[in-house]
Specification:
The protein is α/β, with parallel strands linked by helices. It has 16 helices and 13 strands. The strands form 2 sheets. Strands 3-2-1-4-5-6-7 form a 7-stranded parallel beta sheet, with helices on both faces. Strands 10-9-8-11-12-13 form a 6-stranded parallel beta sheet, sandwiched between helices. The longest helix has 19 residues.
């Protein structure tokens, strides 16, 4: 069986790693990187740390408007599909790379398998929400991480080819969490002790492209530092750095900016953080699986299970809500319910592809 896998952003590298490991033991996989994340700190290091080969092909698309970027990807992926004629096209998540891959394959009659199908935030202002919906309705196989995702697809009339497999990010996390503790020296490099800091990520356009939201979030981080004495460590996404510079926004004393870091360093920081503040869907799940409290800097989340279990609170960009939740909320004890699977999603996905 010949599989063509499309990736383009760092969360997809993490998701693809466990599936690629299983695929390459049994079949032929061609891994295509669209170049959506083209900075080496956002891309290259992840392949090395996750133990998967460098992409067989890098399309080098780079940045641009949504339409420009998706259009260039669509044309480039179509050429690869015409040349390779794979048995399946495998796509992950909700990026422009995912949408372009699915559309190119559908037009050529190549079956599409979507990993992380069925997620919905119900916020149509997010480009990712449109990508998810369109790809789900294009796909022949829909691999769902949770029962909620299965139910949401059924509500849209999608039941054929839908499978509950668990979350591949849990597979990756179980493989690498211990390795991160052993190999990463990021805490020592930064002079941090476990539980002495909060960890944050900010990269969604909802926050970076709305000046009042970005200012509110950074002010909240400084308030948290002043109330708790714990700094907020923020690996700075290139988009966020660009907006900070454009706005001339001074970084408060309570915010410690660091360069983007690799997967193992990020896992080490997550595991040792007292709290995580993020607008990333993947990091919400990682926080949940690692039993680290999470504050989501968006007005909604597609990972509703984390909220229902009490380990995640959605606050948006409201300064008072961020500070209040981070400093006053009583968080659950023990381990969260294992709603994202048992760490064997990759094997189930490959088994289902073989039987299709």
């Amino acid at each position: 069986m010949n599989i063509l896998t499309i990736v383009g952003a760092r969360p997809q590298f993490i998701k693809a790693a466990p599936v690629s490991q299983v695929l390459r033991r049994r079949h032929r996989e061609l891994l295509v990187h669209t170049g959506q994340h083209y900075d080496a700190s956002m891309s290259d290091v992840f392949f090395a740390e996750l133990g998967i080969p460098q992409p067989d092909l890098n399309l080098g698309i780079g940045s641009g408007s949504h339409g420009q970027q998706t259009g260039r990807m669509l044309m480039a992926i179509e050429e690869v599909l015409l040349r390779e004629r794979p048995d399946w096209l495998l796509v992950y998540g909700d990026t422009n790379s995912t949408l372009a891959g699915a559309l190119a394959a559908v037009k050529l009659g190549v079956p599409v398998a979507h990993v992380e199908a069925g997620l919905r935030s119900f916020n149509r202002a997010m480009p990712e929400e449109h990508n998810r919906v369109l790809v789900d309705h294009c796909a022949d196989l829909l691999f769902c991480p949770t029962q909620t995702a299965v139910d949401l697809l059924a509500a849209e009339g999608l039941t054929a080819g839908v499978h509950l497999v668990g979350d591949v990010m849990v597979d990756a996390l179980r493989q690498h969490a211990g390795l991160a503790r052993q190999r990463s020296n990021v805490l020592a490099r930064l002079g941090l002790l476990p539980q002495s800091y909060l960890l944050a990520t900010v990269h969604r356009p909802y926050n970076t492209d709305v000046p009042e939201n970005l200012r509110s979030i950074f002010a909240a981080f400084d308030d948290i530092y002043r109330q708790t004495g714990r700094p907020v460590v923020l690996p700075l996404h290139p988009r966020t750095r660009k907006q900070l510079d454009a706005l001339g926004l001074a970084v408060p004393a309570g915010v410690r900016l660091i360069e983007p870091i690799g997967y193992l360093d990020m896992l080490a920081l997550e595991q040792a953080a007292a709290l995580i503040l993020t607008d990333s869907g993947g990091i919400q799940k990682e926080a949940y699986t690692l039993a680290v409290p999470c504050v989501t800097l968006r007005p909604e989340t597609e990972w509703v299970e984390t909220v229902q279990a009490g380990w995640n609170v959605v606050v948006g960009a409201d300064r008072d809500a961020i500070v209040r939740t981070a400093t006053q909320r009583a968080w659950p004890a023990g381990s969260p319910p294992p709603v994202f699977g048992d760490g064997h999603a990759a094997e189930r996905i490959v088994d289902l592809l073989e039987r299709a």
